[in-house]
Amino acid sequence: MTLDRRARWLALWVLCLGDLMIVLDGTIVNVALPTIRDDLGFSETSLAWIVNAYLLTFGGFLLLGGRLGDLFGQRRMFLIGISLFTAASLACGLATSQGQLVGARAVQGLGGALVAAVALSLVMTLFTEQAERAKAMGIFGFVLSGGGVAGVLLGGVLTDVLNWHWIFFINIPVGALVYVLSLRLLPEAPGMAGEGRLDIAGAVTITGSLMLAVYAIVNGNETGWTTPRTLGLLAAAVALLAAFLVVESRVASPLVPLGLFRNRDVSSANGVGILMAAGMFAYFFLSALYFQEVLGYTPLEVGFAYLPSMVIWGASSLYSDKLVMRFGIKPPLLAGLSLMTLALLLFARAPVDGSFVVDVLPATVAIGLGAGIAFNPILLAAMSGVAPQEAGLASGVVNTSFMMGGALGLAILASLASSRTDRLEAAGEASLSALNGGYHLAFLVGALFTAGAAVLGGLLLRAAVPSPEAEGEPVAEGA
Questions:
Q1: Which residues, at least 6 apart from 40, have a Cβ–Cβ distance to it below 8 Å?
Q2: Measured by CB atoms within 10 angstroms of the end CB, which terminus of the chain is less buried, N or C?
Q3: pLDDT digits (tens, 9 = 90+) for 84-116
């Protein structure tokens, strides 16, 4: 892709705007769930499908979406994804029944998967010079990470001031703008459709495996982790994954060339991403519950409680490229993960009558700073040494790692919190104190996830980024 500097940065902002819609949707819906339940008559059980329908198609199609981008052109897949997501957002906003909303959410997830799977690879192919790439990834990482926090704030404002329909309608003008700008600013990429066939067997087995795994995980707490239904779904997911690996080792043009995982940094970064996402999802989900269920915050107050974190997150993300160019990938990643671990430990001791200044603000500042620093290096490591024709695949893999790590981590932590709360109540603890005790355990285990990510990254990552001050010499990092 040969674009001048100004065109590349304009293209980056278009990609960020498109991806921001997808990231926002992951959290903006959560704030409006009680209102949607009352308006459309959802039960507590069926209400979960507003989220689960999206997660199923989003998680299931990430890998396939990334490979389709490599084969048929990343710009084309990005445009198709934006179109699907925007049209489905209109359908969600206009929904007057449970079936219409859940069905439209599933289409949203498919569109979101296509966008998320190729957007990162487009950034990597637009920016090939190391300093520019690090800066671009810092901006992109801010959108990926800070967008979730912004979704909580925006969801509270739109739901309180207007109504829940607007959390979906807001995507329509943004999606239309992104589509038009993409046609003008994103460069054409022919793809490799003529160089290999789409691995249908691989696509079916891995997509089926991911969808079954996501379904089992997001419903595990409700149906029980040891029930035949949950165990059967997980066993089927594992069986399909095994079939996928067999297929990939034998076909001429595999969907996922297994040699990709022989790249030590790619494999290690995805492992770190799984653990990091598990702790990150714990922060978003459990802190929002602590604010509302224990401290009694309204949805709008929850949004404003996250505001300092979001500002710091954005600032540190935009500065993270300088840290990567100065110190390499590993030191900023370890520093960021350490700060995230500290934040979760602070929440693990937050009292029932907690003060915002004393008990909330320090933790949100620490996680904002830590996540802002950590996202850039982990994304760079996950895409390091990947051939351009496999950039979409690598992007799909790292997005899948974040998705599956977050879903699995959240399911585990929610189950631990619920179980701990029940035990404390059975022992005579007051209900609010017991609820907070459950959150404390979940935050503690979340801190173990992020600490484990730091240990794994410290031991296995070896990627280095050249520093301008070193006159082109790479920054040395131990394995």
A1: 95, 96, 97, 98, 101
A2: C
A3: 999 999 999 898 888 888 899 989 988 988 888
